[in-house]
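Researcher: Last one for today. Full complex below.
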Amino acid sequence: MWLELSDLGLTENGVCIVADVTLKVGAGRTAILGPNGAGKSTLLRLMHGLLKPSSGSLQWPQDLSQGMVFQRPAMLRTTALANVEYGLKLRGVTGAERQQRAMDALRRVGLPELAGRPARRLSGGEQQRVALARAWALEPQLLFLDEPTASLDPASGREVERIIHEIAEAGARIVMTTHNLGQARRIAEEVILMDGGRVLEQTPADEFFRQPRTEAARCFLREEMP
Amino acid sequence: MHELATSLTLAGDLIAAADGRLAAIVWLSLKVSLTATLIACLIGMPLGALLAVGRFTGRRVLIVLTNGLMGLPPVVVGLLVYLLLSRAGPLGQCGLLFSPTAMVIAQTILIVPIVAALARQVVADAWTEYREQLRSLGASRTRAAMTLLWDGRFSLTTAGLAGFGRAVAEVGAVMIVGGNIDGVTRVMTTTIALETSKGDLPLALALGAILIAVVLALNTAAFLLRQWAERRWG
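Model: Here's the assembly. Have a good evening.
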């Protein structure tokens, strides 16, 4: 177990977005599933610290370096390489080492030849891979991904999945939200199902897809299955 | 009608001949207003960026203030700087009154709010797009502000230009703190005001034409730059 959430909740303007989340997260690759508006992305942001919970708490037994990749990659108006270098620059990595590490990361996501291209002129799939390289270059021990393939075409989506697998193999824990069940099946070891801001079930992935524990999960799977 | 035509012809002759007096006035105008714009950008852009991304007490008051001061009347700024620099004023010792430096100071004060308010808008828009990404990467707010200024460098030309346009076109402030001294502090707008009242329309018209041409040329250049940047960087 590397993260424990106790009674975590977030209320904004009187609207309860996440409520009473009590969880122990310990899997290497976790997928948070649920319909739109279930609170998946909000829970991810609470875990990453982008949002402050209005109640409850998070406990980190060990200090993990974190990164996050968003549904829409935010690229700065500069080259792909400089975008990857930017994260390293914030960590105080300088000079030749910075460029080297950024270039390595771009190579790992299969885009070394686009290093000098303006990042925002790249396709959506390429931009998402640059975003993955930017996160990966920092060698996080924990990587959050918020619907990383939701805005991409299937081919780009598969490439992004391949990269997520490699990042996991390299030793990072993965927590991702998705509404793509096939993707959750391919990537996750454990599934967290949410609806209405609450966690309905937390189950090992193979079990979740074979015989979910709750009626809500059975319902969700029936509706979402193609 | 006849008088206008004659004046226009004479004005054209003045410009074509690159009249020395005319050139000196144009040059001083550009020097004063460009310097004021440069200083206003150095102050106003970081200020605007911090107002956009910062979280400090007084931020909202400052935002309302910069927005409100965009419409600062030049004569009032002139008067305040005059009081500051006049012999009895707090900065009277410097002997700056009726010098181009005084004019730069007045115009800078006049346009800092314009540059800051417009820069704040540009950076605030970018902040909504980048906020989570920059925080996730661990950028401090100050760092984020600087990053977004750089990222918005092409859009920010608009803020600089708005400031320059205001500075180069105003009469009141430079008239009061510069004194409109021939050959020392006489700029395009003050000359136009003076020559018109004296009835020397050709010189006034020539300067008016140059003033408009300068502003148009700069705006065109900035427009082309932004277009190029949009194609190049997205």
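Chain B touches chain A through 20 residues (CB under 8 Å). Chain B has a mean pLDDT of 94.
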